[in-house]
Design goal:
Blueprint (H helix, E strand, L loop, with lengths): L3 E5 L3 E8 L15 H14 L3 H8 L3 H14 L12 H34 L1
Length: about 120
């Protein structure tokens, strides 16, 4: 297998680094975490009240990973900010529809203002 050569600093060959396709820039293999592992890490933060940095350190992952996992799970409604905050599919759908309604109202208001502007310009 031919190594992949990446250059830094706008293509200067002196700054070239060699990287095999299956390895990350740090030289090691990229770690992949299962959904269950991520969910358990987020539950440790949410339900046990531990900090993200503490959980990350105990699991041996970067704290930004735990933060992004928490944000993703909260967005999908899998975990909430308290123990009883798990949302039913109906509640999740209601939240999604409310966000869509807010967006549609904003778009309508912008179009109203544009219509008023162009109507004024025609006179």
């Amino acid at each position: 297998m031919r190594p992949l050569i990446l250059t830094r600093f706008c293509g200067h060959p002196a700054g070239a680094i060699t990287m095999l396709p299956e390895r990350c820039a740090m030289g090691g293999k990229r770690r992949r975490y299962s959904r269950e592992f991520k969910l358990e890490a987020v539950r440790m933060v949410v339900e046990q009240g531990r900090t993200g940095a503490d959980v990350a350190e105990s699991l041996g992952v970067d704290r930004s990973l735990v933060a992004s996992w928490r944000k993703a799970f909260e967005a999908e409604g899998t975990v909430g900010t308290d123990e009883n905050a798990r949302l039913t599919p109906e509640t999740t759908e209601i939240h999604r529809l409310r966000r869509e309604l807010v967006e549609a109202r904003e778009e309508r208001d912008i179009l109203k203002k544009a219509l008023a502007y162009f109507a004024k310009e025609r006179k």
